[in-house]
Write a structure and sequence with these properties.
- It is a single chain.
- By secondary structure, the chain is an alpha/beta fold.
- It is built from eleven helices and eight strands.
- An eight-stranded parallel barrel has the order 1-2-3-4-5-6-7-8, surrounded by four helices.
- The termini are far apart.
């Protein structure tokens, strides 16, 4: 046998595994949703609305707007949600937390959203305004996200999304306790759970199986964070209990001053994760955009999603 034949035989199994492109079989049969945060300045507002305009033709199921730690962005969140509802064809979802407000205050905010035509709430326990400070329920407030979900359902028939943690919330005693908390939120009336970001498809699939075994039957949507800023991602991961694998750290080494190269690596990592999830049957993805559209748009494109013209009758006007 020639040396070339021997080499060919030895590498054939590896080639066979890699021969089929990851995105060869995508059919565009996905639903997506996008998360934004309320802008703090005029320049950030321009970036946000440019991203909204870019992503709108993908016709997401909904777009959500975050609520700062300790309720610090309450007014800006409300203004952003209302503007999306008023000026676009998108269905906005407002984040609402238990932090720093009484039940009455939170109920009033929810009623204001309902009166403004907002039908979807992302109900969260929330974090204290000061980083590192443990969550303390307001004396007259909702004790946790499950209680918030129950309270919102009494106010109006909101569609409600809640958070889930594939790698366990850092405040939970263990995974069993974390799943119990998720089940309590679902039993209180949550319509779906959106996961915290993760970087291993196995983390999501394992968590989904564990949730099903625990009797949680609601839709569980993977949250995808395309990494545009490594330091920022490390900070987020430390706060929410997500792990950053060593191989990912290595991929971004030396790219701090090469934004275009860093962008390409970020897109590759996130696209591969989504491709693996798609191959495993996932058809709904929630993107943490950080108010930038390009990475999320590119991944949606790889998954076969194409823009559609928004009919004029569906576009709202100011």
């Amino acid at each position: 046998m020639s040396s070339s034949a021997a080499i060919g035989t030895s590498i054939a199994p590896s080639i066979e595994r890699l021969a089929k492109p990851l995105f060869e079989d995508v059919a565009g049969d996905i639903d997506v949703s996008f998360e934004f945060f309320p802008p703090k300045s005029e320049k950030m507002e321009e970036t946000l609305w440019a991203s909204v305009e870019t992503l709108e033709p993908l016709q997401p199921r909904f777009v959500s707007v975050t609520y700062g730690a300790g309720g610090s962005t309450r007014a800006r969140t409300h203004a952003t949600v209302e503007r999306i509802a008023r000026e676009t064809s998108l269905a906005p979802a407002a984040h609402l937390t238990c932090v720093g407000a009484s039940r009455g205050e939170i109920d009033d905010i929810a009623r204001e959203y309902w009166d403004a035509g907002i039908r979807h709430i992302v109900a969260l326990r929330g974090d204290a305004a000061e980083v590192g400070t443990p969550f303390e329920p307001h004396p007259g407030g909702y004790a946790n996200a499950a209680a918030l979900v129950e309270g919102l359902k009494k106010i109006a028939p909101f569609e409600i999304s809640v958070a889930a943690y594939p790698e366990c919330h850092p405040d939970s005693a263990d995974k069993a306790a974390d799943l119990d908390n998720l089940k309590a939120k679902v039993d209180a009336g949550a319509d779906r759970a959106i996961t915290q970001f993760f970087f291993s498809p196995d983390s999501f699939f394992r968590f989904r199986d564990e949730a099903a075994a625990a009797g949680i039957a609601t839709e569980i949507v993977p949250g995808i964070l395309p990494v545009s800023n490594v330091a920022q991602t490390r900070k987020f991961a430390g706060m929410c209990g997500a792990s950053i694998p060593a191989w990912m750290d290595r991929l971004f080494e030396g790219l701090d001053n090469l934004p275009a190269a860093r962008h390409l690596v970020a897109a590759t990592v996130a696209a591969e994760l989504c491709g693996q999830l798609y191959a495993g049957g996932v058809r709904h993805f929630h993107f943490y955009t950080l108010n930038r559209a390009e990475l999320s748009y590119a991944i949606c494109h790889l998954l076969g999603l194409r823009p559609k013209e928004v009919p004029s009758e569906n576009r709202r006007t100011a």
